[in-house]
Design brief:
The chain is an alpha/beta fold. The chain contains twelve helices and ten strands. It comes from Oceanobacillus piezotolerans.
Amino acid sequence: MSIAPKGLIVPLITPFHEDESIDFQAYEEVIDFQIESGIHGLLVGGTTGEYHVMSLEERKSLIKAGCKYAAGRVPVMAGVGGPTAQETIELANYAAECGVRWGLVLPPYYHQTSEEGIRDFYKEIAEKSDIGIVIYNYPGATNVCLSPELIYELSQEENIVSVKESADFGHFCQVLALTKDVENFTVFTGEEPFILPSLSIGGQGAFGILINLLPKEMVELYELVVEKSDLQAARELNQKLSGIYGLMEAEGNPYPGPVKAGLDLVGIKGGKVRKPLTQPTDDIKLRIKEELTKLGYKVKEQDKSVIPS
């Protein structure tokens, strides 16, 4: 049985070359940056990683590379969801062979099914997968909202170990209340503005696009709440970060363009997004640059990189 994840997990971006092939050297550098900054785990090939514009072979190559570059320093989660249970199980078991510990799975969407269909989908995947399954509830992207009661029911399955909640905060609270006594099941938020409140009421972890860009600050926020119980200091840090939270999704949700632009600014290759996504605008780049300056970063105009002051 897989142990449930906890802590701060970064949904990694995927750097691309100009021809839109995966830049694995830059990917390794991104992973090193995250681990050296204290992140508790990596999510490879998730939404922020642009899995939806990749072939199956590319998704597999990204999973394999992510495990290789992590080299056991932190646990790895992989986006393994597909339109059918069979495809999801195949990718989940490939990920297990690579060393992945958990698989993140969206519910069926587009041709939307019943709650019974969703239940059976997750149960089949959990039963036949060699890694722990993490439910991904993201109605803003899928137009499918899993009820708190359904998530509670699925939490009883031995190999379903967590949920990533990207619904509204009220929904998060209901899920947390229903599952609080379930052994080996954790509840994560997937939204930066909810990280502080969700951790303060008992959430066990968080994802967030911004973690790619500001891992040290986000780890500090987590530690202030969970390890030090210093809510005053956590509130002060959260207020400093609040200006950049909204910029991560200012041009679309989900959309990795702004965080990639921010990484380019701090001297770590974020690079372009893959078509049909369009590149972030000059306006969003300027606004991110302004927020980084407020956080104590200075821009070197000659090479457009940013270093901490």
